[in-house]
Every structure is written in structure tokens, then in C-alpha cells.
């Protein structure tokens, strides 16, 4: 709506009215937008100034760190220089300390030891050097000069000892009493020690018998895996007992017992189809007892065959035949190996 010249209202077109209003308000919106942009520009400038201040502070901190690192480097260089100056003095001091220990302290300790005469002689010479260093131009007393030989007499009849020196009376009295006690024994010669412990021998034989019983089954059926494992355990106990004998017992007895037990355990390993272990035990048995041990020769050969090592088995069996002669089982195994090698064309 609009007013005419005489105050009458005039109806305007709606589209034209909208366009007129837009033209009127457009400068206002543009001014507001410009003001907003100015505010945003001012805020951005302030924020940029803040970031510049922060960058300046960070740069200052980095500069301080850099100067501190330079100072530390200078301090390290100074320390290295001081070490170069002090190091040789410290090394000389260490060498002097080692020299004192080697030339004075150690010989003094050796001189106090009443053991080997060779050390005592060396200690005497070093002790003389030490005394010359500590007290020059002073007389040195040797060990011979400080030793006093005390007289001791023995009665030809009673064999008792005596001395005019009273300091030896307690020791000689105890020694004479021990001598009289030995003479009073019914048998003056003690019996020789037993060379072989019979209890250990009985235990070794028991382990061997129990292991054999574990493998013993009917003629038609081989031993089971459980029986083989039990036999292996018992034979192992016997081997530990046999090889654990004291050193003064005859070594031939140890070899005899262990040789048989290793051969038996090889058989138990074969029953359990443990071919490498059986071959190793059989070889050990042969090393302990080469002659008269045909079973061990045969068992290692059979284990090698079961592992497919036919050529090695042939060489082993031929070596066994050279020692055992024409042993029946070894001869049969040699023929079997030869036949297999012929078929394989080896």
C-alpha cells in the first residue's frame, strides 16, 4: 500500500514492493557485513600478534638451551684436559701399589705360611728386599738364625721320647701315650681295607636280574613297551651303581659289570624300538669289553640296519667277526646285510 497525492491510498504490486525493500536494506546489510569483517580482521591480527610473541619466547628458550649445551661442552673439554694431566699420575700410583703388593705384601704372606719350602725361600729373599726398603743399613735376620734345634732323646728299650727342654713335655707326653696305646693293641698290624664292597656288587647284580626278569616273556610274544621301559630303568640304576664305585676298587670289575649292563640295556632299547639309543649302548659295551661280547656286536649291527645305515652296519659286523670269529648270530647278520646291499646295487 502507498499514499497518493491527495492522501488516498494506492495499491502497489507485491513484487515491486519486495524489490524496493531489498534496495533500501541492501546498504545496511553490506555495512553490517563490513563491520563483521573488520572485527574478524582485528581478532586475527591480535591472534597473530600472540603467536608472534609465543614464537619469540620459544626462540629465547632455544637460545638458552643452546648456550647451556655449549657451556656443558666446554666443561667436558676442561674435564678431559684435567684427566689427561691427572691420568698418568694415577697410573703411576696404581703401578706403585701393585709393586708394593707384589714385592712386600705377598712375600710377607708367603713367609707366614709353613707349607712349601720353595715359597719360604722366595719369601725370605723378598722379605730381605722389603726390609732394605723400609730400614736400610740394618742387619737382616734370616730364618736359620731364628731357628733353635731342641734336643730329643729316644729310649732304646721302651722307644719313648724325652727332652731336657721343658717346653716339649706336653707334646712328648701325648706322643708317648699314643705309642703305648698302639703297642697294647692285640693285633699291631691293622687289617687291609676291603678292595670290593660286596653290598654294592649285590645291588648291581640285583638290578641286572630284575631288568632281565622285566624283559622275560613267552617265546611267541616280544616284551611290551611298558616292560621295555621298566627294564631300561632298572639297567640304568645298575649302570649308575657300577660306574659310581670308589676309585680304589678294581677298574676291571667296573668294566665287567658296566659292559654287561650296557649290552642288556641295548636289548631293552631294541625292544622299545629305540634304535639310536640301542646302538649307542651296544657300542659302549663293546668299548668296555671287546672280546667275548658277541651279543653287543650283533645288537649294534641290528640297530644300524633298522635305521637304514646298511653300509655302516656291514663295516661294524665285519669288525665284530674279526674279534669274535665265526660267531653264529654275527655271521647270519653279515649274510643278511650282504644280500640287501647286492639287491640295492651298492
From TrEMBL:
Q: Which domain of life is it from?
A: Eukaryota
Q: What InterPro entries does this protein map onto? A: TPR-like_helical_dom_sf (IPR011990)
User: From its record, what is one biological process in GO terms?
Assistant: protein folding
GO function terms (MF aspect): Hsp70 protein binding; Hsp90 protein binding
| Residue span of region Disordered | 186-227
Gene Ontology annotations for the cellular component aspect, listed alphabetically: cytosol; nucleus
What is this protein called in UniProt? Uncharacterized protein
Q: What is the lineage of its organism?
A: Eukaryota, Fungi, Dikarya, Ascomycota, Pezizomycotina
